[in-house]
Amino acid sequence: MSGILEGKKILVMGVANSRSIAWGCAQAMEEQGAEIIYTYQNERLKKYISKLVPDEKYLFECDVTSDTSITEAFDKIKNNFGKINGIVHAIAFAKKEELGGSILNSTRQGYAQALDVSSYSFLAVAKEGVKILNDPASLITLTYMGSDRALPNYNTMGIAKAALESEVRYLARDLGKDGIRVNAISAGAIKTLAVSGIKGHSELLKISQSETVDGVNVTKEEVGNTCAFLMSNLASGITGDIIFVDKGVHLR
Ligand code: NAD
Fold first, then answer.
1. Could you report the per-residue pLDDT of 48-89, keeping only the tens digit for each?
2. What is the pLDDT of residue 32?
3. CATH class in words for 9-243
4. Minimum CA distance residue for ligand 1 atom 35
5. Distance (Å) from CA 158 to ligand 1 centroid
6. How far apart are CA 118 and CA 123, in angstroms?
7. Is this prediction's pTM over 0.70?
8. Residue 1's pLDDT band (boundaries 50, 70, 90)?
9. Mind listing the pLDDT tens digit for each residue in 193-208?
10. Is 114 in the pocket of ligand 1 (CB under 6 A)?
């Protein structure tokens, strides 16, 4: 099937480089006919995304820890593209100290930062998003199964993902009347910049691979294809849900 996103304008937040899950989502949605708009975190990261998306008109700076930055980015997107049909939020951060050993290593500041960037930001983006989203529209975020089980080293990020998944349900409840569906994709382990912050990430990737149903890790392309489906009208009955795209790792 092709062209399920023909005529749709989708904002993708969180492409750091070609390994990013957000890039897998963007490419899959583009293949289905969508026009993709991007935000990047800061000038340093702009260098990398510019190599993937050379046309400046599709690129907007947005640091999700700043309400001003989010508002400015959405204002610019509205001025340049008008209303849009969906947003993919593929953003997370925690300091290395929060991602290893005992959960007691967590600090007040590190915890607050991880929850701010990785959970609250989805709510902050939704607040601005509703102003420029069409009816129907779709909001998608990325989560991991460390949200509901105590996985080694995932620690504070697991807590942030639990909050994020809860947000998905509350947002789905409150935005349904505006025709906006809200879902999360719970992706399997994929080697990206974000994963390299987790202590023992090579081991995590190996264990994850051995726990898939076929011994092959999920790819960003497979996650991207699910994103394209969830973004499309084919998924009109799905909201408030967490969809696993992990080759069955969550079955263990
Ligand atoms: P990535 O490093 O490619 O992407 C993370 C992105 O978050 C980067 O683009 C970074 O710039 C952005 N970001 C961090 N702080 C930000 C800020 N203050 N403002 C704006 N952007 C900010 O890594 P990824 O693995 O593709 O991560 C994307 C999402 O997928 C994350 O939510 C991650 O938790 C989730 N996820 C990843 C895996 C995996 O194994 N890689 C599995 C499940 C879920």
1. 999 999 999 999 999 999 999 999 999 999 999 999 999 999
2. 98
3. alpha beta
4. 142
5. 14
6. 10
7. yes
8. low
9. 999 999 999 998 999 9
10. no
Q: Is the distance from the beta carbon of residue 242 to the nearest atom of ligand 1 less than 6 Å? A: no
- CB-ligand 1 contact for 223 (6 Å cutoff): no
15, 17, 20, 245: residue to mutate for ligand 1 pocket, most atoms within 8 A of CB? 20
Q: Which residue has the tokens 């800061």?
A: 42
* Active site (catalytic) residues: 144, 154
Give the distance (Å) from ligand 1 centre to CA of residue 130: 22
Q: What is the DSSP string of the chain?
A: ---TTTT-EEEEE---STT-HHHHHHHHHHHTT-EEEEEESSHHHHHHHHHH---GGGEEE--TT-HHHHHHHHHHHHHHH-SEEEEEE------GGGSSS-GGG--HHHHHHHHIIIIIHHHHHHHHHHHHEEEEEEEEEEE-GGGSS--TTTHHHHHHHHHHHHHHHHHHHHHGGGTEEEEEEEEPP---TTGGGSTTHHHHHHHHHHTSSSS----HHHHHHHHHHHHSGGGTT--SEEEEESTTGGG-
